[in-house]
Amino acid sequence: MTKIEEYRTKLREMGEWDAYLLRESGLPGPRGNIELAQAVADEGDRPLFERYLGYTAAEAPVNSPYEFLAFCGAVGLGRLLAEGEAGLLPKLRRHASDPRWRMREGVAMALQRWGDVDMPRLIEAMQEWAAGARLEQRAAAAALCEPRLLDEPRHARAVLEILDRITSSMKEAEARERRSEDYLTLRKGMGYCWSVAVAALPAEGKPLMEKWLADPDKDVRWIMKENLKKNRLLRMDAAWVEKRRNP
Prior knowledge:
This protein is mainly α. Helix content is 73%, strand content 0%.
């Protein structure tokens, strides 16, 4: 039995979950209890998830146990999306710009749950997010760039196209925006996302990376160089990586 299955069994035996979740959240600390959050997403219902999402950043700040409840609510919406409740997507999108980084991770995890059962619909929705605010773009990239979602070439190809669009939009940003927290958060995320998509479809991904590596934009080049540090690209084609690191 996996840890998630153990937690699911435990939750089924309980009535009120809040005290247990707060106690077992792992917060404050460097890592929240992700396995427990996944179990909550599996076993909870919409009223529970919406109640947990009601814990705002003011009431449940970063690294507090109550932030874990909000995180569970976000991941839970992903299960409902996967079950066909597409009307919840705008609510999840609002949380993509939450000031708490764990909440933003919860949104990405929720979207990946949807992608597990309907990757074409996820891609279609993320094409819209990719034209949105910087943290929405970050959520789209983080959600899509998950190796288990990119087994099919058509899906990897669509994700590469979305990353290309996001990168192009970043290049167009003015100097003032580039200093903003949202832009820097997106830049950091893009520093690994490209490597996931390129490793999934090297024949089409490598030329796109080469194009951006030749671009003079400093932020774009930083993103590409960060991706070249990722072991997944070394495993894909070490000679190609070495040549791009040392042109």
